[in-house]
Amino acid sequence: VLSFIIFICYIASLAASFMMAPLLEFLLALFLLFAYASKLNEKFKGVHWPLADFLRCVTAAIIYFAISIAAVSKYNDGASKAAGVFGFVATIVFAIDFYITFNDLVTFLKQGSSDSPEGRKTEDEDSDSDSD
């Protein structure tokens, strides 16, 4: 929702050249929402869904921060200022989402490494060295 509001603000402002970033973020968020709601993440195990969500959060936070600074400092119209302020709020929201998703990603990667043959091989080697 916040990405869509920022997109609308950029369309109405002199900083319309920045409208593509919130639009892409909005569409990516809709896709991931649809994927999780329709359980595509359980059907397509080859895609690392937590990693995709993590990368989306990191890039969105960085891009929103950069374009918000540019919109607030370079343009003087109210819509650009509003888009910049909403962009700073979105940066904070995506940073919080980044932290939450990072914890999920670490859990996902630990779970994946224990299921792999390499993970079991090192566990077997550890148990052999403990019995010595």
UniProtKB/TrEMBL annotation:
The chain crosses the membrane at residues 7-37, 49-71, 83-102. One of its GO terms (cellular component) is membrane. PANTHER family: CKLF-LIKE MARVEL TRANSMEMBRANE DOMAIN-CONTAINING PROTEIN 3, MARVEL-CONTAINING POTENTIAL LIPID RAFT-ASSOCIATED PROTEIN. Residues 111-132 are annotated as: Disordered. PROSITE patterns: MARVEL. It is a multi-pass membrane protein. Pfam families: MARVEL (PF01284). It comes from Cisticola juncidis. Residues 1-106 form the MARVEL domain. It is found in: Membrane. This is CKLF3 protein. Keywords: Membrane, Transmembrane, Transmembrane helix. Its main location: membrane.
